[in-house]
Amino acid sequence: MPDPIQLLAPLALLPHGWEENVRIEVDAEGVILSADAANGSVASDVQRLDGPVIPGMANLHSHAFQRAMAGLTERRNSNGDSFWTWRETMYRFVSLLDPDQMEAIAAQLYVEMLEAGYTGVAEFHYLHHDKNGRPYADLAETSQRIVAASQRAGIRLTLLPVLYAQAGFGRQPLSPQQKRFGNSAEQFNRLTEQLNRAYRRDPAVRLGIALHSLRAVDMDDLRRAVDHLSALDDLAPIHLHVAEQTREVEECVAFSGRRPVQWLYDNIDVDRRWCLVHATHVDDGEIDAVVASGAVVGLCPTTEANLGDGLFPAAEFVERGGRFGIGSDSHVSVCPMEELRLLEYGQRLILHRRAVLASGREPSTGRSLYKMAADAGAQALGLVSGEIKPGARADLVVLDSDSPGLYARRGDAILDAAVFAGSRRFVDSVWVGGREFVSEGRHPMRAQVFERYQSALDALERVL
Q1: Is-catalytic flag, 234?
Q2: Is 278 an active-site residue?
Q3: Catalytic, out of 221, 309, 329, 412
């Protein structure tokens, strides 16, 4: 077995707080063996890190292909604009993509994520079939392209193939624009079995499933998909869009007599494996149910703002013990600090006060936000932990303490500045599983990956 890797951080955020001169020992599998203050001499072969070290951030909600749409949906139409008109533009865009283009776009996105400080991503992948809605000869064709893109970039992947079976509540048939997404429960279970066989021993790929939404999956099919996954892996993550838009809530009440989160909890045993994405429109009883179950709420503040979804009651949720992580969803932004900043600012605008998501135990708003999102994000990705500690993956972000925004900041002020006065330019290096994939702010594959991305977009531009 190779000798463990020895890293030395001048300052690191450990579970109990900041420590100086921290030695991080990582085994050949990329798992942290020890992380504590180095007392006495340090081995000559230790690799010295250049700035404060924080845990890598999990991006718990991604639709990779939408990165190539960013900026194409910002024109108001004559009838006004909403999530639902945005969706029609997305349908037109997705109808043009082939597998090579999907892979090129995903690889570009994942390089950008790493450079911004995301070390893992949950890919909510619903683009399964060809342009006519027919399954590819290999049912897992596009899923394999997502895996290839993640491995090219080096980001840790939680692959969530999506069950999308109906156009609306009551088994409404899929529209022609939705055929590329659609699977029966039986076909979907075959897909998850195939992916499980292919990747269950790959340490860089974690498998789970996603149910697109309660409007797109019948409750019986939802149960079948969850039961099938549990038989393969009873710890695998399960994600679901829920209560994102008021119209969705109204349609769910009209169909079932219950609000979406209430209806889900009345029918399914929701536990810590679950991530409820958006959950924007929830009432008090639904908040209590989510907190009691241990499920994570997946918040995507830049996308939720871009689509006009509304604001999740994060202050109330956190005060009751709720857990949240962050995702970049449609990728109008690919920056974890911007997601956290907008989350906090939304709560300030609602409540007319500052430092909303800090607490007496964690008075630093930046540190509180970052730690909550990193820890719950790791849970949503099916990882051991989002902290720097033994047993966790060595997914690390080294900040550039010489950047103007961080210069002369110490302790919690580092994360306060990074979140509230920050950008991706604060990232110096990024490590995934004990391997360095970003150095001095740049990914070594940036140019090659961008060249393929350019070719993909040039081809799309000709037909848009």
Answers
A1: no
A2: yes
A3: 329
